[in-house]
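Quick start: what a row looks like.
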Amino acid sequence: MRGGFAYATREKIVDIGPIHATRDKTHNVPLPPSAGAVGLIGGIVLLIARRRKVTRCRVTSSAQVSSLKCGLLKMHKEKENS
């Protein structure tokens, strides 16, 4: 299949006492290539937005990492510099 996705469902054909018969049916959902391009561009935009939102902290020792979170570490360093 090209340009989309497929999924399968199971249909019950016969259910008489101990006799059971089912059939798997495949359903195709066509999508144009432009939908894939829109999804790709949207994912890139989300990654860039997340990267801008995340702040980076510099840690000088592992003890600071375990005891302080990023925001608290920044406040602590600002207090030391004042």
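That is the whole record. The chain is about 50% helix and 30% strand. The helical segments are 33-53, 62-67, 70-81.
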